Amino acid sequence: MKTRLFPILIVFLFFAFTNTFAQSPRFIIDSLKLRVQESLPSDQLANMYGELSWQFAAISIDSAIYYGQIAVKKAEEASDPKILAQAYSDLGSGILQKGDLNESKILYQKSLEIRREIGDSLGMAKSYNALGFIYQRKYETDTALDYFLKALPIFQKFDAQLNAPAVLNNLGVIYQNLPDYEKAEKAYKEAIAIREQLGDFRSAIGSYNNLGTIYKYLGDFDKAEPYFKKAISKSLELDDPMNQAISYRIYSMFLMEKGEMEQLEDVARKGLEVANRVNTQYEIASLETALGTSLNAQGKFRQAKPYLLSAAKNFQSQGSEEDVLFPYFELISVYAAIGMGDSSRFYSNLYQQTLRNKVEKESKEIVAELETKYQTELKDLQIAEQQLAIRSKNILLFGSLVIALSLGIVGYLLYNQQKLKNRQLQQEGELKSALAQIETQNKLQEQRLLISRDLHDNIGAQLTFIISAIENLKYFEPIKDQLTQRYDTIANFTRQTITELRDTIWAMNRGSVTWEELSIRIKEYVQKAGQSASTITFDYEIHDRINPETTMTSAESIQILRIVQEAIQNAIKYSEADRVEIKIDSTGKELLVNIHDNGKGFVESEIKPGNGLYNMRKRAEELGGNLEIHSDPGSGTSILLIWPAG
């Protein structure tokens, strides 16, 4: 399912100047509205309007922005930089929840700049936290984690009671992105315990959703669902429509992955009603996508279309290039189902072009960063050489003037010159080391581009198949059984596509992969295979001769994983076996992966080779190894992958 469509609310972003958890937002708002009518100094009014903005974020985003703008004006009148920084932060909060990531980023950067100038460390941590959330929403994970890691030590240093759960929640986010779900689960549970003890249930709602998402990623839907329902229930109890909209959105994502499309329709409609009331554009677009997906899956294609078109337009206006891929994807099948082939192809091309632009943008950013680093290193070296040349000339001139005075001084000057030469040699050595590092990073980039091409080629080919299959349905007689069977085939193929997409993205987002991480990925696939082929027993073993901390490139890891997946699928489809064994071992010089089944076997020369065997051998060649197939009728089949170690 679409795991990246609805990013989780991962941080409690904003701290108001008061933290009255026991009072509802509406009670606080009514009190503040009376106070701001009084004749008060600008600094007090700025704080109060900022608090109004923060409290309205749970009820009406437009009102939150309105009062945030007044807070900024009053803060400018007060000429107090700390208050102005907080006002920018409060306004940024409302605009962020409206869905304008770029404008909110500008406001938080202004707040951060002021806080740096006045040395407000805790305020800086809050700005780092908010910027981390914005970059998380933009799917720029590395930058987001960098901001979170800047905020964490500051929060830990202050060790404030209210900061502790925020620190724990952010730790959970970092562990979740690694991914280390066990540590993320522990951090979220500790954050929930503290927030419940403090009575801060408004913030606890986000942690409930985070913990439910962890269990969802672990495949434990029975544990996950109560936390999503608890988040919705608590937001209703607190009369907090903003958290209601967020919780409905996250629960919709869960139901989508679970495949409960009728329940998804009901939840998405409720969430969309709340999101429209609060006017939070990101939640509106996300819930429109969820509702459109539900209607599409139920065959209500014409009802699904306007929701998906609206979601796509909304995501585009927010600058959310990755989120817009999902309504595009659903529109392909919607238009095909209602017989509008041209529109279906249009969104297929738009989907692929958007995905291609995203990959190219990321690649250009990495290359530009490497080029900048190289040019800086080169410029530093040239300056050092010029300085050395000037110094050498000065030394020679000085030596010619004083040579008659003292042979000792000449000797000293010669010694000093030799030291400068040694320094030049040292700088040249450091440059060579830097160039070697840049070359290594370039190779890493080439590997990531290889994975990106793999992602693009797989998605392009399989989406073409889906479109073709759906369009061909209109040539069949409208017999329910036939249509159902063909829809099931398409659905299974689409699930396989999304699984391959997840594997490829997982590899692409990592510079290197350890054997432990790859082994976990293979084990998860074997478990899924066992669930889909219940008549077959699967055994998986990796020998302790292989160091789990040993790393390989991300490109190598995806090749190994694809070969294992293809071999297992062939065994399920063709072998008629009741046992499949997967073993990974090492001889020291070579690494071996053996997939053996006890099925009926075959004579390779008597079968028509397909793309599967060809692709497996091609991937083995790209690893620098080879693929051996041993099979005899009645004796089962062994597929052995061998490639050099290290």
List keywords for this structure.
Heat Shock Protein 90; 74% helix; alpha+beta; 646 residues
What is the H/E string? HHHHHHHHHHHHHHHHHHHEHEEHEEHEE
Mean pLDDT: 81
Tell me the strand order in the biggest sheet: 2-4-5-7-6
N/C terminus separation: 35 Å
Biggest sheet character: 5 strands, mixed
* Subunit organisation of the chains: single chain
Structural class: alpha+beta
Q: Characterize the overall form.
A: flat
What is the C-level CATH assignment of the domain at 533-644? Alpha Beta
CATH topology of the domain at 533-644: Heat Shock Protein 90
Counted beta strands: 7
Catalytic activity: ATP + protein L-histidine = ADP + protein N-phospho-L-histidine
Keywords: ATP-binding, Kinase, Membrane, Nucleotide-binding, Phosphoprotein, TPR repeat, Transferase, Transmembrane, Transmembrane helix, Two-component regulatory system
Domain Histidine kinase: 454-646
GO molecular function, one term: phosphorelay sensor kinase activity
Structure commentary:
- By secondary structure, the chain is of the alpha+beta class.
- Among the domains are: 445-509; 533-644, Heat Shock Protein 90 (2-Layer Sandwich), CATH 3.30.565.10.
- It is built from 22 helices and seven strands.
- It has helices spanning 25-35, 42-56, 61-78, 81-98, 101-118, 121-137, 141-158, 163-177, 181-198, 201-217, 221-237, 241-258, 261-278, 281-297, 301-318, 325-337, 341-402, 407-472, 480-508, 515-532, 554-575, 611-622; strands spanning 512-514, 537-542, 551-553, 579-586, 590-597, 626-631, 637-644.
- The strands form two sheets. Strands 2-4-5-7-6 form a five-stranded mixed β-sheet. It has a two-stranded antiparallel sheet with strand order 1-3.
- The chain crosses the membrane at residues 395-415.
- One of its GO terms (molecular function) is ATP binding.
- It catalyses: ATP + protein L-histidine = ADP + protein N-phospho-L-histidine.
- This is histidine kinase.
